[in-house]
Structures are given as structure tokens and as C-alpha cells.
Sequence to fold (193 residues):
Amino acid sequence: MNRPRQHVRLLMLAVALLCVLTLPSAAHAEPIMLNPTIMDLGNGLFSYQYSVANTSPFDFSAISILNLPAVGNAVQNLLAPASFNAFFDPGLGELDFLEDTQSFGAGSTVSGFSFISPFAPGLTIFTALRLDENFNPVVVQGTVLAPQNAAIPEPATMVLLATGLAGIAAKVRRRRIGMKSCGNPTGELNFNS
Fold:
């Protein structure tokens, strides 16, 4: 067998072995779902209620909703069901649902996490944490609707953008006028000369 074919064959064998090693772990995904119920209360307030559904064969200890607005009033009147705790860290913009005397057990659904927020819902990331048999952390990630900052540009940003575009337009116009005066009747830019 010639050398290039042998290298290709070894490469294909390595890829096949890699697939065999990674596919079983992908087939054993640990599904955790955060199911939100969101109501617009009027006056710029929203009610958020969550249930955590664990359809995996493992118990989870903590659920964290990430990337919330990092302000103190983003989460108000935070409640957790009996046997659980809930904390909001405004410095990190992170909301945690934690086990106290009970975990998010395998095959269970825990309801009763709720709060009020002045921020409308948007899609964000959550993580679920459990420990494996060797006490190593295992993290599962998903998406959920949660309070989000609206991306509204500031007036100063819009003025800067408009000024920049006007400057570019003026430069192009001056260049075209200069081209016409140099014997180019169309004023089109020619990059071939």
C-alpha cells in the first residue's frame, strides 16, 4: 500500500474512533427545562413564575439564570417553594434556584419560584449543576425567557453615527467633484489606473 493511502486510512480510523468515543455521551443528554409563566401586570411590571422539570436520571442542586439586568430592582419579591432557596445577585445579573433540604430530583418537577420585574422578557441562558459519582461538577445549559434590558441606542450614539455617515458622504462627494475636474466626466472612481 502506498504511503498517502495509508495516511488517509489512519486518519479515517482516528475520526471513526473519535466519533465512537463522543457519541455515547451525546446520546445521554440530561434534559432540564425551566418553564416560565409570564404576566404583564401593567404599570411597567411583569410577573415571572418558574417551574423546573428534571427528566434526567440525575438529581440537580442548582439552577442559575444568567445575563439578567445587573441592577438592584431587576428582581423584586423573590419567592421559592418550601425546601428550596432563591437568590438574586444584582452585581452579576444572576438568579439562582438552590436546593435546601430537597434537590431537583430525577424525574421531578418543582414549581413555585416567582418574582416581579420592571424588565420585559427576553431569551437568555440558564445552567443546571449536579455532581457526578466522583463529586465532579456537571453543568447542563439551556435557554429560557427571563427579564432583559431592551437594546435602545442612546441619543448620543445616534448623533455620532449620523455625524460619521455625513462625513463619509461629504468625502465621497468631494472626491467625485475632484474627479470631474481632472477630466473624468462621470465622476466615477476608477481603481484600474
Q: What stands out?
A: Confidence is low (pLDDT under 50) at residues 16-30.
